[in-house]
Amino acid sequence: MTTNALAQIAADAARGDVLFGTHADIAARVRRAIDDPNCSVDQLSKLISAEPVLSAKVVGVANSAAYNPSGRVIADVRSAVARLGFGAVRTMATAIVVRQLQGMAHSPEHRALSSRLWEHTAHVAALARVIASRVTHQDPEAAFFAGIVHEVGGFYLISRAAEFPALISTELERWHDGDEAILGRIVLRALDVPDQVMAAVESLWDGFLAMPASSLGDTLLLADQLSPVESPLAELTGMSSKGMVADIDLLIGDNTLSNILADSAEEVASLTAELKA
Questions:
Q1: What is the pTM of this model?
Q2: Would the pLDDT of 249 be above 60?
Q3: Is the peptide bond preceding residue 212 cis, with omega within 30 degrees of 0?
Q4: Do 202 and 110 share a structural domain?
Q5: Are 130 and 263 contained in the same domain?
Q6: How far is Cα 192 from Cα 27, in angstroms, rounded to an integer?
Q7: Which of 137, 143, 165, 167 minimizes the C-alpha distance to 154?
Q8: What is the pLDDT of residues 84-140, one digit of tens each?
Q9: Residues 6+ apart with CB under 8 A from 219
């Protein structure tokens, strides 16, 4: 890293001093439970029920159009876990941690920046799930998870910005030239992100979209470029992709990407709204 502030933040994180909020513990416990091959829906539901914020988020997402096309509303955690599956529950637990990072911003300016970054994240995650399912034929839950964590380095950066007053205003020139990847890798490892998701986020940092899009990385890149809300860090660092989206339309079998996204608009909007709530 080339700037003192970014170097200090990265050095602290590399030593294991990655500062997360209180929800990181419940996310770790959920992850350990899911990784246990003997974990049952009942056991995971009891664990989630002990955390009100996570419980509400799991039930809310389970009732979204993305996971509830029939419109049958459920109101209990066990039914929500059974409907979502363990992969989506893991994503929700991680989303709570990332969302809490958003709330760790101190100044009004940084809170606004972090809030817009979360809005971008929600759109990318929802779009990635649809694109994985209907375009690239990747695991939709892996794509959803990748969308949730793809800007976690940015959230961590903003959460530490109060300690370095000039960081956001004058020291972000090289964020997309390598600094994002350095800090992002450290924070993603601290969250124990699976290797396939790490590789997808690495593809996003590299910025190379293969055509035809087929990999998990391509899925994330497409979702990021198609998001109606751009990352504010991209804007601040002069890496805005505005004006590129209109050129992105792929032929998918007998359909087009734009038609697929139009057909999935309710699903994307519903899931985005639940994540932003």
A1: 0.88
A2: yes
A3: yes
A4: yes
A5: yes
A6: 10
A7: 167
A8: 999 999 999 999 989 888 888 888 888 898 999 999 999 999 999 999 999 999 999
A9: 128, 131, 132, 135, 136, 138, 143, 146, 200, 213
Burial class of residue 241 in the structure, from the number of CB atoms within 10 Å of its CB (0-12 exposed, 13-18 middle, 19+ buried): middle
Which domain covers residue 136, as residue numbers?
1-19+104-277
Estimate to the nearest angstrom the gap between the alpha carbon of 10 and the chain centroid.
20
Same domain assignment for residues 188 and 234: yes
CA distance 198 to 181: 11
Residue 2 reports pLDDT greater than 50 = no
Percent of the chain as helix, strand, coil, to the nearest 5: 70, 0, 30
**Which of 103, 128, 151 is at the close of a domain?**
103
Between CA 134 and CA 211 the distance in angstroms is 16
